[in-house]
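Internal ticket - ligand job 271, magnesium ion:
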Amino acid sequence: MRRASVYLSLGLGLVVMACGAQQSEEASSSDAPSNPFGLFVGEEPTTPDKTEFYEPVPPKVRPGEMGLPPSDAIVLFDGSNLEQWKSSLNDGPADWILNDDGSMTVKDKSGNIETKEHFGSIQLHLEWRSPSEIQGSNQSRGNSGVFLQGLYEVQVLDNNDNPTYVNGQVASVYKQSVPLAMASVPSGEWNSYDIIYHKPEFNEQGEKTKSATVTVLHNGVLVQDHFEILGTTEYIGWPKNNAHGDGPLILQDHMDESRVSYRNIWIRPLD
Ligand code: MG
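stdout (structure tokens):
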């Protein structure tokens, strides 16, 4: 059981984060990213629960329908093969399971897969489905994720009747931004994500001069609204901001029995 004072601190921290986001829009682009944990400043996170909080819980919203690729999109997966992807573990062929229905499914503990092509700023559409047969709980139920430039995770999770820390729930920017709504369809049905992502910028000294931003529609519902990404989405520890160039799109194997499926993945580079 977490201490009440910790909840209070984290709650206040969230308020600080909201205010900080507003202020940062008015500040110069060279300002350092704000710290989302407010009163946790100075306390080094040494265990996962130091960077997890449970309130406020986003309201549930009923979603709409799926989209089709526009004519200028790069189709990364249309159900026919995994040729645009490779294993993140060994650079070999992506060996997730190719299904007859035009989808692919995480193969247990085979590791993440990533696009062979690297991207910067993008518009991305994909559809994902958690297993209808419920297995695991909390972060071990239908956990996958979409890593933008290979570094910044938009969480995929079966959150139906499965509470977890809200900054790690479905459609969160992992451990950074709580989604504005919980818009999942029932477990076993297809969800869509439409993501608009603008890459961060760095100067010649390797310092970040502009934060990445991300907007996410979950089943057509706005859940991330031009959020300024604070840095890498770490499981333990603060976000990192080492300079980097374009990167792959990574789909996560959570290394348990989450068995999330994907279909209809297309991307439009915005650079
Ligand atoms: Mg994940």
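Auto-summary: The helical segments are 4-26. The first strand starts at residue 74 and ends at 77.
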